[in-house]
Amino acid sequence: MILFCGSLTYATETIAPHNPIKIAVDATQVMQRILHAKLVFPVHTGPLTLYYPKWMPADHSPDGPIWNLANLRFFAGSREIAWRQDDVDMYAFNLVVPERVTLIEASLDFLISAPGPTIDFSASGGANLFILMWNQVCLYPKGLPVADIVFDPSLTLPSGWKFSTSLPVKDQTGPAITFAPVSLELLVDSPVQSGEFMRVFPLNAAGEPLQELDVMSDDAWALDIPPELIDQYKRLVKEARILYRSRHFRDYHFLLTLSDNVMELGQEHHESSDDRVKQRTIVDPSARLLMAGLFPHEFSHSWNGQYRRPEGLATPDFQQPMKGELLWVYEGLTEYLGAVLAARSGLLSAVQSREHIALVASTLDHRAGRHWRSLQNTANAAQILYFSVPEWQSYRRGTDFYTESVLIWLEVDATIRKLTNNRKSMDDFCQIFYAGHEGEPVIETYKFEDLVSTLTGIARNDWASFFRDRLDATDQGAPLRGITASGWQLVYNDAPNEMLEAEDSVSGLGDFTSSIGLRIKQDGSVVDAIPGMPAFESGIGPYMKIVAVNGHQFSLDELKRAIRSAKSEPAKILIDVNNVGRIKSHAIDYHEGSRAPHLDRLKDTIDYLDEILRPRAVAHEP
Ligand SMILES: [Zn+2]
């Protein structure tokens, strides 16, 4: 097989594909935020191209952090080999293997950073904890699918550190761990969590495959997970078994890191999830409430996204661009199923789940950008939207294929129930679509047509038009018909929305989306202003700073008071704004008071939503 790179031709025979590539990671200097790695490639004489992973499966983006690669060197025995980064593809390194050389050793360092205001996957370690993402220290030969490249991985940790991972361990001597040989595809899918302070909580019932919560933090006190939360996670494992009736993992690890020193994320893998939240998340009631959907979402990905993956996201290696067109299924359906499982496992009450759906619906219904950018486009453009800043979020739109799809999949669920007299539902879809190979991870790809035909087999309907109408629309509000079809309606009143209050408490923002159309930091900095809504129409925009409200010094409480009292007064709300040094007054013509979103029961309709959110385990378990 011959592959082409620009005007040069490389023979894949330069690499000996059937011999494992050794990768040895030395994390003993991780407290200084440096990782060392050595890789040994079996090779033949001739030109060789090695890739640094670029498109990461769980990121849906070309964001492999190559900028933090340092001290890259290649050796044939003691002889150093020259290398050259490709002129166009920054993720490709070219070298020539000398005659009679059968092994090339690469050595490299990876520089760990601290979490910043934007996405930074290099922020993966601190003074006494660290999550190894193998793609950050890895090179692999061009020309072979990553499923066919076998690696022999090993890792040396700082003395006394514990670790957890879904990778099978072959051997351990003190801090030196050797893992069983594994395909590059699965290696990159298997992070290793390690640190000084760690606790393990089993979640599965006796006789079930191991499913456990592995908690790590910078301090021992943070590992005291309340028993009722462990009980809810046990119920999650049980409810997922009842919903999916299949498993595509040998065992499963929720790798939870409670730390302010790593980037916050939830990243899905076949047999684990890399879940990182702030250290106080479990002890802060608001933060814990907002975390309720994290495990149900990431766990659901083991079925939706990992086992069943859209064709455009299942590329043969990490260099080929991905197509995000079905992210409204990969992420959107996962978000819906995650919300369902959060309720069924008791992580959210039915009331909190309805408040969550109301908030999603309200936020999306006030998206100014939906008049020019379809939901489908947010999925297609995911690779740029993930990295967009919060300013102008409403007009630009962000990765709305997560939240807006919750409304669409709720409508699918309610529609199936209506068409089948409540005999069938999305539960049936889960049991059919994710059935098949059990145990060791595999990927089964699908297309839009497969989704449509599975749904048609459950309830006859024009599902293709159903989805296209909602995905391609640019001239209407959020798709709210799922809420009404399931027996509820979106309403606004001055009672607080519990989920919105929690969001504001954790983020430190004031969210006035559904009243004057602003999102504001505590210091008055405007994060977002929604075109078409009163604040924007008065002349206020992102990056301005509100300094006074009706003649009083700005505070979020002062603005809330002004909005409330404007309901009974004809006067406009007067806002003084500092716009890069120029002070200007704006008059907001708004008199509807506080408007927080909620769901209200629609009289004389069937309450499908309550049925969807109801726990199932009680009926199945003695
Ligand atoms: Zn996800």
Mean pLDDT: 95
| Low-pLDDT residue intervals, each spanning 5 or more residues | 1-13
Report helical residue fraction. Answer: 25-40%
Approximately how much beta-strand content do the residues carry? 25-35%
Bound ions, cofactors and other small molecules, one mention each: zinc ion
Q: Judging from the principal axes of the Cα atoms, what is the shape?
A: globular
Strand count, sense and barrel status of the largest sheet are: 9 strands, mixed
Count helical runs. Answer: 20
Number of strands: 36
Query: C-alpha Rg, in Å?
Result: 26 Å
Structural class of the secondary structure composition? Answer: alpha+beta
Kindly report how far apart the N and C termini lie: 59 Å
Any overview of this molecule?
The protein is of the alpha+beta class and 622 residues long. 27% of the residues lie in helices and 28% in strands. It contains 20 helices and 36 strands. The strands form 10 sheets. Strands 3, 4, 8, 9, 12, 15, 17, 18 and 19 form a 9-stranded mixed beta sheet that branches. A hairpin with a 3-residue loop joins β24 and β25. α6 (332-344) crosses α11 and α7 crosses α11 (403-419). The longest helix is centred in the middle third of the chain and has 18 residues, at 227-244. It is globular. Mean pLDDT is 95; it is low at 1-13.
